[in-house]
Amino acid sequence: MTAVLMFLTPDFGDTGKLVYAYISYTVLGIMYSGINLPLSAILPSLTSNSNERTVINTVRMIFAVIGVVTVSAGTMPLVKAFGGGDQAKGFLVTMILFSSIALLLFLNMFANTKERVKAIDEKPLPMREGVKALKGNVPWLIMLLMSLFLWITTSIQGQTSIYYMTYYMKKPELIPIVNSMQLLMIFSMVIAPFVVKKIGKRNTIIMGSVVSIIGYLIAITGGNAHSVPVLLAGLLISGLGMGVGAGLIFAMMADTVDYGEWKSGVRAQGLLYSAASFGVKVGMGLGGALGGVILSMGGYVANSTAQSESALAAISFNYLWAPIIGQIIMITLLLFYRLDKDQPVMMRELEERRNSSIAM
Q: Are residues 333 and 139 in contact, defined by beta-carbon separation less than 8 angstroms?
């Protein structure tokens, strides 16, 4: 409902419409968080098996990528078809369609999802007790920082894609091609669970990050030479590397919930996931702001037909070097992540505690 309301165009005058847009967008963001947080936080309750968590979240992320690409590619044709020349009407009807599909999917999930892993004490958890699960939870802190830096650099790159293809490569026709390459991430997401069984989640993400860095370095070479084939080949390789980690981060966050319970006796998955989600939103906000600052420092001029050398350098940095820096930071953080080794002992002891609790 809130998504549909956001696309209404009430006759409130210019100021009224602006206020309406701010309020409706803010309410939509709040409602989305109210859905997305439980959707993420429920993963540790679905299964205690680490491999099953990896598969579940991989499937989730595969359909997320399909959804993003479908909406990105299909929105404007639907707007045109439903609007018949009236774009406002087209967007409204399109959003009603998208919202109806989303509602049916959410209701289906609600009706068919069962929590199988229960906390030893299922009483409501006060905030002051939940915080105990954060104390000494180094794996959770690593995942929080990793998500923060990943989204900072991803946001910087994402907002610069159009500028890079338009001004640096002088080929704006590449924009839809580059955007559609997100679908290639599905391939690496599919194979990630099999790799995890061999080398673990941490090492799988490190491997993906190394592949991604190699891809970006190839893309930089292609960009500097203005070679479209080399640029696209580099972006393809980097996307495959990124896809490996995309399906694992939330599964690893679920493991940190178990770790917090193991160390403190408190299972606070809602608090841990909400704090991590806050880190993601902070990262997106900082990335958006930082990317704009870098472009401004480089002398980027909006809507100009040509940009200075410093502006082009800033655009190149945002689009290709920033994600490399993000991947290097992720690898560095993951070198201190030891939970994969502790997990067998941790899960065995937690299972013993739960069985003892049931017996009592």
A: no
